[in-house]
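RESIDUES AND SHAPES:
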Amino acid sequence: MDFSQEYKDKLVSADEAVKLIKSGDWVDFGWCTNTVDALDKALARRTDELTDVKLRGGIILKPLTVFEREDAGEHFTWNSWHMGGIERKLIARGCAFYAPIRYSELPRYYREIDCPDDVAMFQVAPMDAHGYFNFGPSASHLGAMCERAKHIIVEVNENMPRCLGGTENGIHISKVTHIVEGENPPIGELGAGGPASDVDKAVAKLIVEEIPNGACLQLGIGGMPNAVGSLIAESDLKDLGVHTEMYVDAFVDIAKAGKINGSKKNIDRFRQTYAFGAGTKKMYDYLDDNPELLSAPVDYTNDIRSIAALDHFISINNAVDIDLFGQVNAESAGTKHISGAGGQLDFVLGAYLSNGGKSFICCSSTFKTKDGELKSRILPTLNPGSIVTDTRANIHYLVTEFGKVNLKGLSTWQKTEAIISVAHPDFRDDLIKEAEKMHIWRKSNK
């Protein structure tokens, strides 16, 4: 069937498309790499006409035009499913708010609860011969979002990689209200930070020696997971698989080193499965039209049952800090918001349920403040306002540059002793004193 006439009929300018949006509407702006560009600029031009427009998305990779004006918060509010650095600045301006979620449940929120969606608009790859616009590396929850939306506007970007999958990785033209052809900007990039530090490398070495051949990997974003990826790429490991929430550059390096083939995966054999991807152009080029990759909705990738079905599942994630009870905070610095819950807890739980699986929470033992003061990331109790991402019953392995400890099944005093054993030596005595006050210490580990 030829869809060219329908395409022409639905093709409008960005300015025309955003006329659908009214004051008080809920408007989805896309997700990460497919956050709108031309439509964002067009909506910004309507600022004075609109009030209380509630925008929604997450992990935006470049500043939004709608928030450039100082009075933007009087017209638009950003509601984020997961915060990035740009969004944190909007929080400080009073323009943005986080929606606490369990990421694996996000498609269900759209389908089953009162999650209003007047207009959904997002960037897509050019339409294929069958009339489908591909979501790029952001299947995530977009299929469910489109089911909920009253109006759907797609912004075509020729640079958007076409990411193959099995389900809910694109939308047919028949379901689209308007088509906008944008300016084809480069897809937003998310680097892995600077080169790995000595601490990153020390933590990575401790984790990599726990990974067997044939393991299935999930990596979080950041210096430490990236260092783990680099070390895996240089290792003798083989027959690895990938099943992850977020696809990152490290996986490309591991794959190109010949370590990934997915031959030992119990499900999605030979495929690298992910819910969304964000990285550099190198990664987007690798994802484009690659049949080895499987772009899938997040209620599949992050479902504990999917994760647990994969033998020798290895989950590697960061933490901001952890206390002596084993409570992990990966979301905030006290009350200051940093990111979000994402899928960390799902992977922590799923990896432990996996046959031979292991979950690793990793962090440097210390950090330096802006004034140069050395602070411990291992605390007696989490700072007031800190978010518990993983409860004390959930953590499996904790890894710092001073060692790794398995915290499952330990009594409070055993767990405290193990956690202090991987703290920075300069802070261990004080941690022991605090543990004694809290009656979770039985003997000295000096």
